[in-house]
Design brief:
CATH topology: Jann2411-like fold
Mean pLDDT: 84
Structural class: alpha+beta
Strand content: 5-15%
Largest sheet: 2 strands, antiparallel
Distance between the termini: 54 Å
Helix content: 40-55%
Order of helices and strands: EHEEHEHHEEHEEH
Number of domains: 1
């Protein structure tokens, strides 16, 4: 099944917030944060449409800029996002990892061939290269993101994973020192909420 169309890419929209700390290092963390809750009950999904999903993949070096993404495959990317979020949430909350999320991430890691095979041609001679036909662009992207999530969740940075401490934000980040906000905006909102609670006597801390 082809995931790519021949349609031209649409205009890239700017995200509502800068990447959370750690998201530039771990694309899987940025994927987990690609759907976010905004003040006033609003939400933003950076993978809402096939064009949005294609732009996100292109921006992370996981798809060519001149390829479009079909909805069925954009849905697969959104599904992997939810499974990675479930694993991050279980890690942050200290709960057992959901079996369905483990299975989905493991399947994504093994769906595309990861080995760089040997090839020979007159120009380059003997060399290694990974198969990456157009029909497998999404599979390779999902495999890369799943492997990145596994590294994040089991590596040295796993202890620094935390949820943004400024409701209604639902993003995750890698904690630096005592900071537990994903952005300056969330930090300002949390400080303003604490100041308001102190003024009105509603501080439960």
């Amino acid at each position: 099944m082809r995931c790519m169309t021949d349609s031209a890419p649409a205009e890239i929209l700017e995200p509502a917030a800068p990447p959370a700390p750690g998201a530039e290092q771990y694309p899987a963390l940025d994927l987990a944060n690609s759907a976010m809750a905004l003040p006033g009950g609003h939400t933003l999904d950076l993978l809402a449409t096939p064009a949005d999903a294609g732009h996100w993949l292109t921006g992370h070096g996981l798809a060519p800029a001149d390829a479009g993404l079909r909805e069925v495959c954009a849905a697969q990317l959104r599904s992997l996002r939810e499974q990675i979020r479930a694993l991050i949430a279980s890690r942050v909350d200290g709960h057992p990892a959901p079996a369905s999320a483990l299975a989905a991430v493991n399947e994504a890691m093994t769906k595309a061939p990861a080995a760089a095979l040997l090839h020979w041609d007159a120009t380059r001679g003997l060399h290694r290269a990974s198969a990456h036909p157009t029909t497998q662009i999404l599979e390779h992207a999902l495999a890369a993101l799943a492997a990145d999530a596994a590294e994040l969740l089991t590596g040295a940075d796993a202890e620094r994973l935390t949820a943004c401490g400024s409701p209604p934000c639902t993003r995750y980040l890698l904690r630096h020192g005592r900071r537990q906000w994903c952005s300056v905006r969330c930090g300002d909102r949390a400080r303003a909420a604490r100041a308001y609670a102190r003024r009105t006597g509603r501080d439960d801390a």
